[in-house]
């Protein structure tokens, strides 16, 4: 049985002739506007789908790195870790006398938890070097205290503005975690010196007040409160005092 291709328009009366080079059993695809055409390369080195044809570099070091395709954002940026924000917040906490009114809204509302996790791990590590294993207490008090302070802060925002506060839980956790940094200095001192004495009580009070001052300033800006910093500082003082007692007493 032979296969034919039409010549001319349908109904033109020209008939059909047998196609050359076509073996029996093969299907002849029509050559027209419905035929498939592969992607054409653009002038910028990428195809029409916007995918770079350049392959990923091979090797062990490239496999362990965060480098991807040129058009992809860095891996750390995709998972929400911004080192510029971490450094900026750490510098602000380390300078308790500095003004926080110049903070950008992007940094102020950044709910980054990478820095707080690092600080809590450092605090527990320094306590471990001093012979105190308190990792369970650290994360337990941190979780319970963050939930309690977050709800309390939202209630204070409601009373101040008359509308529900837009403070998110991770914003509160980020603020409390970054302002925890001074207590890491206290636990570091406890590795070399005993803190269960007058010197330790004095240093503990200084670092607790440092953390309380910084965190109350952050939350005051987030909630846009007026003349309420002392009120929000009181529960924060209790929160950080619990961690100072872990560092001071055996």
UniProtKB/TrEMBL annotation:
Subcellular localization, as worded in the UniProt entry: Golgi apparatus membrane; Membrane
Keyword Hydrolase: no
Family matches, as InterPro entries: Yip1/4-like, Yip1_dom
Residue ranges, annotated region (Disordered): 1-49
Superkingdom as given in the UniProt entry: Eukaryota
Extent of Polar residues compositional bias: 16-25
GO cellular component: Golgi membrane; trans-Golgi network
GO biological process annotation, one example: vesicle fusion with Golgi apparatus
Domain Yip1: 106-246
Coiled-coil annotated spans: none
Membrane topology: Multi-pass membrane protein
Record field: transmembrane: 137-157, 169-195, 201-223, 230-249
Keywords for this protein: Membrane, Transmembrane, Transmembrane helix
Alphabetical list of Pfam families matching this protein: Yip1
Record has Transmembrane helix as a keyword: yes
Stated family: Belongs to the YIP1 family.
Classification via PANTHER family: GOLGI MEMBRANE PROTEIN YIP1, PROTEIN YIPF
Descriptive protein name: Protein YIP
Native species: Zygosaccharomyces bailii (strain CLIB 213 / ATCC 58445 / CBS 680 / BCRC 21525 / NBRC 1098 / NCYC 1416 / NRRL Y-2227)
């Amino acid at each position: 049985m032979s296969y034919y291709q039409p010549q001319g328009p349908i109904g033109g009366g020209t008939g059909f002739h047998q196609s050359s080079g076509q073996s029996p059993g093969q299907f002849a695809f029509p050559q027209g506007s419905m035929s498939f055409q592969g992607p054409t390369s653009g002038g910028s080195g990428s195809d029409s789908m916007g995918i770079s044809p350049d392959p990923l570099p091979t090797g062990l070091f490239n496999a362990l790195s965060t480098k991807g395709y040129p058009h992809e954002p860095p891996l750390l940026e995709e998972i929400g870790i911004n080192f510029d924000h971490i450094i900026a917040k750490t510098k602000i906490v380390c300078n308790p006398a500095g003004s926080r009114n110049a903070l950008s809204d992007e940094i102020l509302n950044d709910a980054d938890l990478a820095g707080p996790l690092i600080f809590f791990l450092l605090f527990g590590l320094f306590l471990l070097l001093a012979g105190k294993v308190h990792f369970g207490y650290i994360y337990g008090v941190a979780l319970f205290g963050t939930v309690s302070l977050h709800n309390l802060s939202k209630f204070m925002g409601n009373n101040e503005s008359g509308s529900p506060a837009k403070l998110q839980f991770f914003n509160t956790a980020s603020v409390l975690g970054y302002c925890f940094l001074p207590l890491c200095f206290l636990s570091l001192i406890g590795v070399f010196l005993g803190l269960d004495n007058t010197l330790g009580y004095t240093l503990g009070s200084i670092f607790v007040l440092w953390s309380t001052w910084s965190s109350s300033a952050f939350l005051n800006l987030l909630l846009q409160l007026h003349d309420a910093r002392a009120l929000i500082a009181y529960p924060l003082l209790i929160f950080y005092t619990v961690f100072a007692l872990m560092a001071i007493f055996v």
